[in-house]
């Protein structure tokens, strides 16, 4: 039987402007928060496709239909959820004959369904398809609307007028051609806007060329621009979008770049970039479990800086202020020629073990496998992203890890230009502490896509931990709620965010089955990716509901939100 201990180490030190921990901004929520019972599993639907069978979902309230991205079959599944306890497949809409090579995301509203797809090679412009709830493509746009490269997420503005995509534009490689990183190797990241009221549908594609001379400013503000040879426009990779209630502004996460972009939808322009800075894990209530080899749960202060690198983002208005909430997943780059090589066929990854990347100023104890030697860190630290050549042999004195193992609340940016984001709250190490309490035997374990079985205890402790990936926000029972999904842990966490400055943990729920097999389809709901909220007026049951898509199990689960006790 494995020994189980939870260690919290108090470290008193001065925090930098980017290193202030949860306590410096109001504190994380209490470690003894109640595990409530507001969230109840109503039903699960399986696409039957297994891995990649259900990544993102959308719901059209009037038709009571669920639309699921099925990456395995390259299609959108349309599911009747009028009887939410017995979801029923209506049809599957394939886009393969349109040249689509990947279904990326889907959104629905007022009878309109929009689908973001990749087309052709990795650096080719993507397409958005507009269809009705029966899967019939809009006349005049049956071949899709061309947007930026790799539209990774898609959203419809609250007024139903605009479709916005975050076009990630991942590089093919960082290998130079005649000393230049061409756009055929690393295309420009962008945000695309489609006006659904236009007679002829087309996209306005906004890239970041106007920020090409602001590389140092973005770095100084707490962002990252580090792709070898890449311009700012090439390096920035949009990931996810949230839109203000009045439909005037969109905020877009730039995950790999540790930043958020602000988009003015009226003028159709990118007006700002906000660097997110770094999280000091060497503070009380802001620590982490940094070893997958010590065979204990050891959540404590470590001399590590975490890059927030959010995936999903949501927005909420309270007290006349708009706040942004981010799921701080983290992500590392892995491409040919990234780390100084020249072979376009050989992948090179930036996430190096600290035992290899740490320099002689770090103690041998700290770099041991039992403490932090196994931690994945980047050699592209803030001190080196502005010009220093980085290779696989680069050593670091300050470790920067991927993701912050938390969610954060930020004041929505209002200034144009490049500025540091104003962080209001961070959940500190609460996510890991709750998982340790609720799921100790599988703490920081994920699922093995080769064997189909759950991985061993602590297998992810050195690599982003539970990995908060997606979130959804909604109002019910006079309160504002957020659900946060943990990709690696497979759990979901419910928070009361009526006061966004002081989120309150309510419930942890995990509907995976540890003895099951994701390949055989017996593992329950595994690896949540997308989340959405339906209020009582839009829910098929008449009660508020969260719907979560699980990528590895190819399932979609519906959770009813009951009145708080």
Keywords:
mainly beta, 5-stranded mixed beta sheet, 4 helices, 36 strands
Short description:
It contains four helices and 36 strands. With 565 residues, it is mainly β.
Describe the protein in words:
The chain is mainly beta. The chain has one domain (23-561): 7 Propeller (Methylamine Dehydrogenase, Chain H). The chain has four helices and 36 strands. The protein has helices at residues 215-220, 232-235, 354-357, 430-438, and strands at 39-46, 57-60, 65-70, 75-80, 88-94, 100-109, 112-119, 125-131, 145-149, 151-156, 162-167, 190-195, 203-207, 238-243, 249-254, 259-264, 269-275, 278-280, 305-307, 313-318, 321-327, 334-336, 347-349, 352-353, 376-377, 400-402, 407-411, 417-420, 422-426, 468-476, 479-486, 491-496, 504-510, 528-534, 545-550, 555-561. The strands form ten sheets. The protein has a five-stranded mixed β-sheet with strand order 14-15-16-17-28. The protein has a four-stranded antiparallel β-sheet with strand order 1-36-35-34, with no helix packed on it. A four-stranded antiparallel β-sheet has the order 2-3-4-5, with no helix packed on it. The longest helix has 9 residues, at 430-438. It is globular, with a radius of gyration of 22 Å.
